[in-house]
Amino acid sequence: MIEFEKFKKIIVKYIEFHKCEDQLHRMKIEIFDSPLFETPGFLLDWFWEECFTDEGVDAINWYMFEHRDLADDFDYRGECLITEEDDCMWSDEEKKHPIPMRTIEDLWNYVKDFRK
């Protein structure tokens, strides 16, 4: 069963990859439709699916690819550069129950209950 330290380490490694890909893109070097881009994403998806239920995988993917910009929102240690205290997701449509989602640790606190 995955624990927090490994969870964070995997996300930090993907942040490092994404930052490199972003730098290449800014230099007009595109790796988007190539194995250099697709393989890390495939492996990451596979890993999350092995470790978490569908709900956990959905939350991780939302956090990493919709809620955050990995290249801009994190430093190379995985520390979030966003400072909004109310950075959260909502547990219901009425937005009565905020779930903190600023840091990787916040994400972990939510998805750890969805481990396989």
Structural class: mainly alpha
Number of domains: 1
**Helix share bin:** 55-70%
Give the overall shape, derived from the CA principal axes.
globular
What is the C-alpha radius of gyration, as a whole number of Å?
15 Å
Widest sheet: strand order? 1-2
Please describe the biggest sheet, giving its number of strands, its sense, and whether it closes into a barrel. Answer: 2 strands, antiparallel
Q: How many strands in all?
A: 2
Oligomer state equals single chain
Determine the mean pLDDT.
Answer: 90
Number of helices: 5
* Portion in beta strands: 5-15%
Describe this structure in words.
- The protein has 116 residues and is mostly helical.
- The protein has one domain (4-114).
- It is 57% helix and 5% strand.
- The protein contains 5 helices and 2 strands.
- It has a two-stranded antiparallel ribbon.
- The model has no long low-confidence stretch (mean pLDDT 90).
